Amino acid sequence: MIFNNIFYTIPREKVLLRLQFNKKKTKLVGHVKQLIDSMIDEGNVLAQPQAIVEDFTIKELARSRVVLSGKNFSLAGEHITRHVDGCYKVSLMVCTVGSQFAGAVEGLVDQRELTKAAILDAVASEAVDAVADAITKIIRQNAENEGADITLRFSPGYGDWDIQEQKPLLEVMEAYKIGVRLTNSFLMFPEKSITACVGWRK
Fold it and tell me: Is 157 within 8 Å of 163 (Cβ atoms)?
């Protein structure tokens, strides 16, 4: 299922944390607060939030592989297998905020507006995290409707779930439908995109 109208917010506090701001050591002065808020506003204009979510029944749970029903596809790795141990279903998601952030950040760098560029990049990262959080809430509600609970999100690159597994995951999810593709180094484009797995258990 493709989601286009995704409600999310970008909290200033999380942007500050991503910028490694320590409120115990540094006071957030007014003009800096205004600058961050203006970058958040710009981020809300630039963002093109989209997501794809698909649910799969777990057919078999081996030592280092989760075999899913309905597709010739499995999740490879001991860590992802342990993560969904006891689950009967998984939801896979691909989330993105689009490609406009990259051009805007590059433009600020070219203009030597390095502080603004760093803040806008942090805003973009928090935006896609917020989109993933919003999608996770939808998955949780669907699970609760079945009397189930969900695990935390788990993404390729965590533990031994190899980042190269992005390729079959994006293919089975038909991520091209929301403009997400893979580079030769198995990184996603647009950069501000997230793939993840959530397990369902009763």
Answer: yes
Distance between CA atoms of residues 46 and 41, nearest Å: 9
Q: What is the pLDDT tens value at each position of the chain, 202 positions in all?
A: 999 989 999 999 999 999 988 777 777 778 888 999 999 999 999 999 999 999 999 999 988 999 999 888 899 999 999 999 999 999 999 999 999 999 999 999 999 999 999 999 999 999 999 999 999 999 999 999 999 999 999 999 999 999 999 999 999 999 999 999 999 888 999 999 999 999 999 9
Q: What is the CATH number of domain 2-201?
A: 3.40.109.40
Euclidean distance between CA atoms 106 and 69, whole angstroms: 43
Residue whose C-alpha is closest to residue 202's, from 152, 143, 154: 143
- Three-state DSSP at 85 gives coil
Spatial contact of 49 and 124, defined as CB atoms under 8 Å apart: no
- Asked whether 101 and 58 are in contact (CB, 8 A), the reply is no
